[in-house]
Automatic annotation (TrEMBL):
This is ATP phosphoribosyltransferase. The keyword Lipoprotein does not apply. It is found in: Cytoplasm. Heteromultimer composed of HisG and HisZ subunits. It comes from Paenibacillus mucilaginosus 3016. It catalyses: 1-(5-phospho-beta-D-ribosyl)-ATP + diphosphate = 5-phospho-alpha-D-ribose 1-diphosphate + ATP. Its EC number is 2.4.2.17. Pathway: Amino-acid biosynthesis; L-histidine biosynthesis; L-histidine from 5-phospho-alpha-D-ribose 1-diphosphate: step 1/9. GO terms for molecular function: ATP binding; ATP phosphoribosyltransferase activity.
Length: 215
């Protein structure tokens, strides 16, 4: 019998895709665990316990070892910069991090950039040699250039419909994003059999899903 794995699972849009991938890997994972208000869900069929977390908190739970492994977007991993192992690119929740502004944007004297990702944005503009004031927001980032809070934003683009519907334009793509499987450093050693077995099951499922999506 392998060790129980505590898994930090993001509630919201990643959960459905992650649980589908886990099922395709042969694990009996429910697809509706995030529909209830329960925050800790036992999945005895897969010898797992899910900790249903806010996506941005997943790396924190994993770094502190209260979860052995977790599923999290690359955007959050880059922003949070936690001390965890990144084990697998799950290929799900594909989107990109971009610089967005109004279509008539021109460089301004005191540029302001609004974003949910202040560390990523600051590093990007520093590397570009541009001095900007970064304003942290927690959602509806696209509002910022529309109402004059910032002249640019750094945010996620998937289908492009949010920027289209708000009359904005994507200027630069900073990096592409998918969700990753991460592990606590100690758990990776202590529960190596269980974690390795999970990776071995997930890998062909990821390859099949990626081939199926024509990517
Ligand atoms: N439009 C999108 N399309 C695909 N993936 C996305 C999109 N937006 C975000 N993601 C990915 O999904 C992850 C979780 O996003 P989600 O919107 O569920 O959470 P959140 O906005 O961080 O949390 P909350 O809903 O609690 O504010 C992101 O970190 C990113 O990796
Ligand atoms: O290109 P699209 O397919 O339109 O997706 C992009 C949108 O999705 C995310 O927002 P989310 O739904 O997480 O809402 P938020 O504003 O609360 O971050 C992101 O912040 C964009 O606003």
């Amino acid at each position: 019998m392998q060790e129980l794995l505590k898994v930090a699972m993001p509630k919201g849009r990643i959960y459905k895709q992650a649980s589908k991938l886990f099922r395709e890997a042969g694990l009996a994972i429910p697809d509706d665990a995030d529909d209830s208000r329960k925050l800790i869900i036992q999945v005895p069929e897969a010898n797992m316990e899910f900790i249903m977390a806010k996506p941005v908190d997943v790396p924190t739970y994993v770094e502190y070892g209260v979860a052995d492994i977790g599923v999290v977007g690359k955007d959050v991993l880059m922003e949070e910069n936690r001390d965890v192992y990144e084990l697998l690119d799950l290929g799900i929740a594909r989107c990109r991090m971009s610089v967005i502004a109004l279509p008539d944007w021109q460089p301004v004297i005191n540029p302001r950039v609004a974003t949910k990702y202040p560390n990523v944005a600051s590093q990007y503009f520093r590397e570009q040699g541009q001095q900007v004031e970064v304003i942290k927001l927690n959602g509806s980032i696209e509002l910022a250039p529309m109402i004059g809070l910032a002249d640019r934003i750094v945010d996620m683009v998937e289908t492009g419909s949010t920027i289209r519907e708000n009359g904005l334009k994507e200027y630069e793509q900073i990096f592409s994003i998918t969700s990753r499987l991460i592990a606590n450093r100690v758990s990776y050693r202590m529960k190596n059999n269980a974690i390795q077995a999970l990776c071995d099951r997930l890998q062909p499922a990821i390859a099949a899903a990626t081939a199926g999506a024509g990517k």
